[in-house]
UniProtKB/TrEMBL annotation, chain A:
<dbReference type="GO" id="GO:0005886">
    <property type="term" value="C:plasma membrane"/>
</dbReference>
<protein>
    <submittedName>
        <fullName>N-acetylglucosamine transport system permease protein</fullName>
    </submittedName>
</protein>
<feature type="region of interest" description="Disordered">
    <location>
        <begin position="1"/>
        <end position="29"/>
    </location>
</feature>
<keyword id="KW-0813">Transport</keyword>
<feature type="transmembrane region" description="Helical">
    <location>
        <begin position="212"/>
        <end position="234"/>
    </location>
</feature>
<feature type="transmembrane region" description="Helical">
    <location>
        <begin position="99"/>
        <end position="125"/>
    </location>
</feature>
<feature type="transmembrane region" description="Helical">
    <location>
        <begin position="137"/>
        <end position="159"/>
    </location>
</feature>
<dbReference type="GO" id="GO:0055085">
    <property type="term" value="P:transmembrane transport"/>
</dbReference>
<keyword id="KW-0472">Membrane</keyword>
Automatic annotation (TrEMBL), chain B:
<dbReference type="InterPro" id="IPR051393">
    <property type="entry name" value="ABC_transporter_permease"/>
</dbReference>
<dbReference type="InterPro" id="IPR035906">
    <property type="entry name" value="MetI-like_sf"/>
</dbReference>
<dbReference type="GO" id="GO:0005886">
    <property type="term" value="C:plasma membrane"/>
</dbReference>
<feature type="transmembrane region" description="Helical">
    <location>
        <begin position="7"/>
        <end position="29"/>
    </location>
</feature>
<dbReference type="Pfam" id="PF00528">
    <property type="entry name" value="BPD_transp_1"/>
</dbReference>
<feature type="transmembrane region" description="Helical">
    <location>
        <begin position="166"/>
        <end position="189"/>
    </location>
</feature>
<dbReference type="GO" id="GO:0055085">
    <property type="term" value="P:transmembrane transport"/>
</dbReference>
<keyword id="KW-0813">Transport</keyword>
<feature type="transmembrane region" description="Helical">
    <location>
        <begin position="116"/>
        <end position="137"/>
    </location>
</feature>
Amino acid sequence: MKTTQTPAPVPAESGAPVTKADIPPGPPLREKKEGTVLNAFSHGILVLWAFMVVMPLLWAVMTSFKDDRSIFSSPWSLPDTLHFDNWSRAWTEANMSDYFLNTVLVVGGSLVGTLVLGSMAAYVLARFDFPGNRFIYYLFIGGMSFPIMLALVPLFYVVNNMGLLNTIHGLILVYIAYSLPFTVFFLTAFFRTLPTSVAEAAFVDGASHSRTFFQIMLPMAKPGLISVGIFNFLGQWNQYMLPTVLNTDPDKRVLTQGLVQLAVSQGYKGDWSGLFAGLVMAMLPVLAAYIIFQRQVVQGLTAGALK
Amino acid sequence: MQHGKYRFIVGFLALPLGLYALFVVWPFIQSIYYSFTDWTGLSPEFKMVGFDNYSRILDDEIFWKSLQHSLLFALLLPVVTISLALFFAFMINVGGRKRRNGPVVSGVRGSSFYKIVYFFPQVLSIAIVALLFAFAYNPDSGAINSILRGVGLDGVQPLWLGDPDLALWAVMAVLVWSTVGFFVVLFSAGMASIPAEMYEAALLDGAGRATTFFRITLPLLWDTVQSGWVYMGILALGAESFAVVQIMTTGPGGPDYSTTVMVLYVYQKAFRDGQAAYATTIGVALLVVTLAFAAVVMRLGRRERLEY
């Protein structure tokens, strides 16, 4: 690492460096030295941050294989033997298997619902002119910026009155409703970019509006659906606030809730190693999915904030 | 055909709009209405009390504490997170030195590795991240203090989440940890669309890294930075701060309410203390803060749009 990008193309003898006016031209030697120091420093920070991201995760994995005593006595030592029993205990006794199943059911249902309902609304809003179109669009969009917590108190009573409190399908409906603003926003923009000619041709050939939508437009919108689907999947899988309020039945808990409850009850009977095993169990699937589908995940998530 | 069109529109909009109106819009309108009542949330009876709840806020010490902390979350967190992310993204995308036959602008060695790793925390649930760090911060057996012991700093063993002066900072650090990666990737995407000729020209003019960053990258990226700022601020005022504060700090809300934030206070008033009406009033205050925050950032950040 000897030179920085202070480039060779401008050697001192190449005539009057008029263009250098903005930068005080220091003696080249010092510049080089400074550059090296800065370079090492910058690289150092990059490496340091990578460490800071990975270490807590590795620590959690390591701890999940240790027995309770060594967790407390020597937090950073490697496990003496791999205590796989922590994992099986967490899976069965600490109900991680139930939490997993609940989460899969809730997220599965709401993801499908969000994508179907969201794309239906977005398609209509993007492609049809009718009175109130703009109003409905902005009504959906407005939901992106207001604090959910404000609606949560009355929402609790709405859900309660409908008899949907502490039910999986109730949670699914609420998840869908709160995922719609961004989904509609994103997909409306996406449907606008799709060519109209194909849909028009299908329509002229006698396909109904809904048939045109399901058989022509939806397949064409696949890239957009994947992006917004990943965004919603992560958001719904990681949801904590909605289930905390709307889902107080211990049997219906989702992963995040279940883990927090376990921790609150002192790692069920002081079983810290089991708790760590549960924690790692909840982290691994999403981390694995991210590593495999890295490109799509990043696109899906950043598309959200960029648009 | 016209008839068919409207039937189709209604048919397609009815369900999504209905769900949205029932579970999002209606509770939202209700909560503003409830803020003028004395509703406890426990019984269906309540009466209108005018602005009583709002004047009660003025004397509520804990409310002001939570407002202060929420503002700190909304203003300081984005500054730290976005600055770090800008630095990392610049190093990863532009900071590399020119290699022979390589592109003019490139990232440092291993940049794609950094991009993948930095993003890890973003895919984890904030609740799980909060739990993990609650253990790491444990004063006796947590990972952080034992590192301090390991490097010979036996005397420095902070209580972290148990110390009223430290708890808030410890919690905020976790949010920085979990969000920086997202912005690195977001800014990387923005930087990738800046034309290489611009950098080339700057390099020919002898600009160093800092100059390149402040004169070229930052101005051209400004729109993304600004929307990222608003996005982060809204998160920090809402869901994310709720999870970290509720899960990590004792109480919850910390020793002597030292870490309480507005969302948490809404939650506690409604579901712990049975003061639903007052909770919605704090919620309205939170809405005002959120909107004001977004407006201020948009206004302060307004610049002439740069075309390239």
